[in-house]
Amino acid sequence: MGRKLLWASLVLAPITILLRWVVHADDTTLFVVAATALVPLAWLIGEATEHAGEHTGPGIGGFLNASFGNAPELIIALFAVNEGLPDVVRGSLAGSIVSNLLLVLGAALIFGGKGHDGKPLDRFSLLLQLALVFVAVVLFLVPSVPGWSGDAERHTLAVLTIPVSVVLLLLYVGATARSLRRHKRLHEESGSEASGGWSLQVALGALAAATVTTALISETLVHSLHAFAESAGLSEFFIATVIVAIVGNAAEHGGAIVIASRGKLPLATEIAVSSGAQVALFVTPVVALLAWVVKPAMPLAFRPIEIAAMGGSALLVAFLLADGRGSRRDGIALAGVYVLVALGFFVAGDR
After folding, report:
1. Could you tell me which residues come within 8 angstroms of residue 185 by beta carbon, excluding any fewer than 6 positions away?
2. Superfamily assignment of 2-348 in CATH?
């Protein structure tokens, strides 16, 4: 019954598009309908990723989910850059990294922990990606520290961001290529085979279609988010780091929870950590470099609270997963820390 309801609720996506472009509904209606429409789309991405993971193994499956799930976030960020909202973009990117590592991973461990506490995870893969996130945060300090005094949007910081972005991309490409080769080898050595689900072509096609639709719906939701949040009296910083970040990660949230609840905790944890690492080392530098094309240029000048939240999240998760095992207790701890971080974002207010 639940699956039939989710399949049927996919119709909310075209309804959202009609409400915005044909009916021209008010922003409050658009926000509510778009947010609701993202739920079945997130489920579909999770469903497709699970089937793809049966053919590729959990490591590559997690990479696929992160890639397709982060595509809408990249598109939304570029729209926001073009509209001259650099603080919103940086906040959403920082919030995305934090929410993936704390909230998405925490939810995966909570929903997949029952009966699976202590289940072995891919310790090497998870710790490697967390180390890369921490390295990215250290590199973010190069343009960020000068931005803590004076104009954070000054041209010199935008120029300083270019080499930082290039180094991040090179690190990401090198680490990802090595990681994918390792995951492919481990999957082949395991001898596991797909259990009669979707073919790899169907799963990838569903992922692509769901991602494109999610991008359209997410853009609509962000379009209506400012007016909706204004009525609630929230700061743009909180909107970006918490609301936009959670909305942008709806696919990862839904996918990780669905997959973890089915007992596939290794894949669910790969989704959460892979997505956080991909935002830090790929999405963020790509947005910074493409900002020179879509204008205006955007320095990666993060605020101290953003730097602390990103670096602290990576260190905390690495500490909890250092033994290569995950538990429901760890998940509850991560979710609790995320609530505290979100409260910190709320108190910090705008720059």
Report:
1. none
2. NCX, central ion-binding region (1.20.1420.30)
Q: Which residues, 6+ apart, have CB-to-CB distance to 255 below 8 Å?
A: 42, 43, 45, 46, 49, 50, 65, 69, 268, 271
Top pLDDT among 159 and 31 is at 159
Distance CA 42, CA 197 (A): 19
Tokens of 321: 């997963």
Q: Which of 62-71, 146-155, 217-226 has the lowest mean pLDDT?
A: 62-71
The Cα–Cα gap between 50 and 65 comes to: 9
How far separated are the first and last CA of the chain, in Å rounded? 47
- Exposure string (b/e) for 17-43, b if CB count within 10 Å is 16 or more? bebbeeeebebeebbebbbebbbbbbb
* Higher local confidence (pLDDT), 195 or 32: 32
245, burial (CB in 10 Å: exposed 0-12, middle 13-18, buried 19+): buried
pLDDT tops 90 at residue 96 = yes
Query: What digits encode the pLDDT tens for the residues 313-340?
Result: 999 999 999 988 888 999 999 999 999 9
Query: Strands (DSSP E) along 132-234, which ranges?
Result: none
The residue behind tokens 């690190």 is 171
Nearest to 243 by CA among 215, 272, 221: 221
- pTM, full prediction: 0.85
Per-domain residue ranges of the chain: 2-348
Classify the C-alpha dihedral 35-36-41-43 as positive or negative.
positive
In the block, residue with structure tokens 């596991």: 192
Q: Are 126 and 182 in contact (CB under 8 A)?
A: no
